[in-house]
Structure formats: structure tokens, C-alpha cells
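Write out this protein's structure.
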Amino acid sequence: MLLSIGLLVVAGAAYSVFHSAAAEESLLTLNSASYHLDKLYRSMEGPSSVQSDIELAPSSHFDLPNRVASNAAKTTSPIQHFVWLTGIDTTIVDAKSQAQISPEYFCHSNLTFAEHGTTPEQYNARLGGKIHFDWRLFSLVPGRSSIELPQGFGIPVPSDASLDYFTMSLNQNPRNEVDVRMRTHLHTVSPDETNAPTKALFRRAVYVLQHEGAGAHSAADHKSCNAKSLDHVGAGCGEWKTVTAANGSTMLMPVEGMTNHWTVPPGHHVYQSDITPQLNLPFDTTIHYATIHVHPFARGMELRDLTTGKAVLQLNSRDWTDRIGVAHVDEFKSTRGLPITRGHHYQLSVDYDNTSAADTDAMAILYLYLLERQI
């Protein structure tokens, strides 16, 4: 069945900035539009909204470290100021009372560079290729409603950047009607604070992919989950991007004929993909934060180094015991980091145990935050 796309709402959303008393961290609060849930909404079916042109530091200008500024000065249009983005958290609240309610109504959210603003490639070029932005900065998913990067690490976002925040709700269990909002905090620190990060991270999202049209349980119709087919760059739970292969050629990921949203029949199944091209590592580096996005009945994901034959990461998932939905997914966080090597081959796998009597939809995404080498 083709999954319908939720109505995109642009009204009723707002944001504000709060500075802590210690002036070491700023919390920018985003309140989504109100979502009326009056029926079942599976993944990618629920109502959604976009908050556009968000400024992390509208009244502040923070100098880049000297070594970064000197590199940027060699380009035609250098970034001169930035702010550290260190985390994000979302709470589901009743739209009227503003009281916190069950997180089960959360489908996903994506913090991105503004769709009609400066592109990630342009920001990367302005810094002489020393930063490796993609469109998205953070994604939150069922079972992972907050991300806080390790102490001392952050994402150096240009202070003149405009950001967009896309949120979508879902409702996988029969119940009475409910109206919800998503309240989100963005965590930022200025470089002149004593607790400011000193190490920059860049993000990679890699997917288990399946062939389209490969039998009755194919999910070719689920391409609606990819941002390529939606109204906003942050709308999809998956994203299309161009990567450069080792031979210098470019390819669009996920590649044609593959899907990142498929159907799982009843029973136990393991799906896997060689994700080396998706990683598209610019150099040897280390993983300092990781988490996953899966659907109900997933049990966990594994990142394996095929070159050494050793597992790099194992992150598990747990469903609600009394309703359909993902209650918790693991995260990995480390100041020391896990080595990941550009010249190695890597495999991503996901374990699904569909204990229901019907087919279920599935995804498997690994979100990685990797150390920039020259920042």
C-alpha cells in the first residue's frame, strides 16, 4: 500500500531563545503546529509542519578559531563567525494544556539548513573543505527524543546560517482523538564560553537498503519516505544525497532500484547492506556519537568492519510492551571515540522479529557523528 504523505502545515509554530543564568548554554525553544490525531497514522502518514529560517545566534557574532579562519580566508567568501550546536531534545505535549504526554505520537524530526538558503556544499566551500556538512544537522526518531553530543564536542554552525525544523507525528494505536504539539530545545554554546567545545563533528546517515520489486514483500511504493519525493528537504525519514566513489564518479544514494523503506513478513529476518559508498569518508576518523532509527519489531542494528571481520557498533531497540511502537533505541557516546577507516569496507545489518500475524513496514538508519580532522 502506498503510504500517504501527511499535510504540511506552516502556521502555528514559533520559537524563542533562553539564556541560562550561567550564560554558558543557550536553549532555543521551538513549538510545532498543533497536530490533530483522529485516526491511525503510520510512518510518513501523519500531519507535519516546518519552522523556517531559524537563527541560532541572531544577535551574536563569534570568531572562528584562528586556524580555521586562516583557512577560510583563502576562499572567496569565508565564514567569519559560528556557534556550537551541542544537542537537541523534544517533548510531546497536549496542544491545549501543554502538559507532557506519551512520546508514542512522535514520528520523526529533522533540523536542516534552510531549504532556500545557503547550501551545505557552499558552507563547506567557504571553509576550504575543512567542514563536511550535509543538509541535516540532527534527526530525532521514535525511542530517541534527545541527542546530547559528548562533552567537548559540537557542530560548528555558521552564525549567519538559517535553519529549518521539520516535525511529523504518528498514531499507531486505536484511541480517542488527541491534539498534540512538539516542544523542542536546541542546545548551543558560544565559542567564548569556558565550557565551549573544542572538537568539531560532522554527521553521516547510512541505511540498510533492499531491492525494489523483489517479491510480494517489496516496498517499491514506500519511496515516499525519501526526501527526494517530498515538499521539503527535511520531510523524509530518509534523504537522497550525491556521494563520490573511489574512482571519482558520483552516485545518488540510495541508488536507483533500492529502497530504504520495505516490508517485513511475520517471523525473524536479518537484512544487511554494504554501506561503504554511503559512508563516503573523507579520511580516517573516529565515531563519537551514534544512534539508530528503526520501526516496531526491530531488535537491533550492527555496524561491522568487513575488512577486519569485527563488529564496530551494536545498538539495540525495544518496543512498548502494551502498544505498537518503538519505546527506546540505544545510543553510543564517547570522548575517546571508535576508529573508522576510509579504506575499509563496512556492513550495516538490522534484526527484525515480526511477532504479529501481518506484514509490517521497516527501516534501518544509523546516524553517526564523526570527528573533523582539521578543525
